[in-house]
Queue: 3 jobs
Job 1
Amino acid sequence: MGKVVMITGASRGIGKATALAFARAGFDVAITARTQVEGQHSDHALTTPDGRPLPGSLATTMAELAVFGGRTLAVPMDLLESTSVDNAVDRVLATFGRVDVLINNAIYEGQDINAPFLKLDEATLARVCQGYVLAPFRLTRRILEAMLAADGGTIINVGSGAGERDPPFPPDQGGWGFGYGAGKAAFARMAGVIATEFGNRGIRAFTINPGVVVTEALMATIGDKGALAIQQGSAPPKVPAEVMLWLATRPEADALQKHTIQAQPLARERKIVPGWPA
């Protein structure tokens, strides 16, 4: 039986690239996202500048996974609905019987996530709390219990520099707002706690900062002002994807736990991604 990876937020961007990387490496792959088919509308979702849903869906990712021949499963999951999270975990465990690697990549990404401070309201922060803290906690606890029963597993959380430092620019000039920064800051504490509490029971837990990655969501949120962020350095989604595969499969990665891993510098130093940077 092959190893199983569960990846949240795999309809596009980093999540999709990660699903493809693990499938290419021989893993059975379970993916979750809100968007089941192209063009599907979801409440509190990002859109293109002209108001259309972002490209990408579970169906599209599944079609690309099919070429690798492994077992795959797509499960609709909305972080803003606790029942949806529970149902997703139930289906993955019922189908595969185990999860060897969990990648917490999905986040709440509504249009209001980077609202300027005086325009940010409590309803947005409530969704941030649900999407960045409560739902990942609920999902991870369930999967962690299954990992402990199987004597081990790896958890990788996709963080952000926004959770660790102040923005270089205001939100309307390409920086981030308090909502996004607060959500990522809280989420960044999870992996270190898990590694400390369960490292002696076969559990490995990492937080990575992918850096600026050129995804559909990034382009939708920053638009023309995105040049300010891109100038700081960027990478395609395959870079953090390959870094997460490396973390999940290489024993020397153990030493990188309990601090945030900067994915792009690590990829360069270890030459993890062939042909990158060019």
Note: Residues 267 and 274 are 9 Å apart (CA to CA).
Job 2
Amino acid sequence: MPRFHCPLPLATGDLVDLPAGAARHVQVLRLQPGAIITLFTGGVPGTHPEGGEFEATVTRMGRSDVQVEIGAHHAIAREAPRAVHLLAGITANERMDWLVEKATELGAASLTPLLAERSVLKLKGERGDKKRAHWQAVAVAACEQCGRNCVPVIHEAVSLAEWLAAQPSAPPDSAEPMTRLVLSLHPDARPLRQAVPATGPVTLLSGPEGGLTPAEEAAALAAGFVPVTLGPRVLRAETAPLAVLGALLLA
């Protein structure tokens, strides 16, 4: 059954005009009135408190608009058992699109593009806003494909210094401690499985092509990041964080 992201408050029995993106996809698929589709809100505030997904029936196909009737809600959760937040050095060309797409499929809770010193792209201002919106759309499309009902947030691109400065000095009393890992070629880096506790959220820091600079890695270590290794081979910038996500999040 085709799945579409619909970040609107939905309730069984409502007649809803689909957002432009979802309507366009329905039209591209040449669906007709009576077709059954699946809608998910993606975790937008104000939407269904249980998340999940809704059945919906196409009731009208216009030139540029599509109306559906909302059917039964299904409280289906396909999120990973732990939250992994990816802080990834921006890679060149389409490799960052690929990283966002695959990180979403694997279950990353969020992704912050890192303006690392060795990053080829330097995104700020309007250009940065457009890239962020593009990457968020890539994450939405990946959720439609893979079955996730909660869209990971793609944060604004920042430098490591900016990210560290924005972090609270201590987690709330009720929060589970956050494990911080940095992918490193340092000889003292620990194997991934030895550095990660069985449960709890993780922030994973990964550099761009060429890796983090010594100054960036030193800043990360001073902020409590633990250096980890994936073995003797040097993986590409877009491959290494995905390997970690697979190891931590796949059953």
Note: The chain has seven helices and twelve strands.
Job 3
Amino acid sequence: MKVQVDWLKEYTEIDVPTKQLGHALTMAGLEIESHETVDLPDGEKSEVLELNVTPNRGYCLSHIGVAREVSALLKKPLKLSDPITTLSTEAGAVSLEDRISVENLEPELCPRYCALEIENIKVGPSPKWLKDRLFAIGLRPINNIVDITNFVMMEYGQPLHAFDRDLLSGNKIVIRRAKKGEPFASLDGTQLKLEQDALVIADGERPVALAGIMGGTNSQVSETTRHVVLESACFDSATIRKGSKKYGLRSDSSYRFERGVDWKGVVSAQARAALLIKD
């Protein structure tokens, strides 16, 4: 897990040199594998720490998670925003029932699934600050929507996924098991024939994502996308681990779900992403 020191400073005060910070984290069980100075595209420099996060500390696979540790170690207050309150104040609450329905047929494998629709967006390049955050920790900027979901995942530790709403057949989302031999084309170009042990996110006709692992090409966000459905969910760790291994798909999303995601953060991360997209 790579963390940008300047990014950590958004959540807590850090008044010690980065080398000393790294030593404190190592003594707390988050061993520092590397400390590097990254050259950003505009020539600025940024310090980045790479942490060895053990499987039982999945909550540290995010900047906020690491900031909590730093806050406790340095005895500094934690500074976190409240995106849920901000979003509800600015946008209000509008029911999705007339626009898209969500049916969860596997509640034991998906204990929480939240869908939020954002209309009239414009897909394009991300602002400089967002590109710099992703570049510093080794992620390639793609477009503002995808970049925001990646940014929030690295901020909260909660994987998100954006679907092009107009590509969802039947205006519905169904969490279900795959049908035997059901075809699925993942975003990395892999063509799969799924088995019934696979957990999928489907629309009214076919799978649009291998749950918790990777989205599909048939619903991906592109330059022509105007409305998105933003997914934030919790999935069973063992199911994600088995599916990722069986189908040979690894992602930052599956890495986190395999280690457990706090279901309480599902809505906060979704709200945070919605506010960024809205801006």
Note: The mean pLDDT is 94.
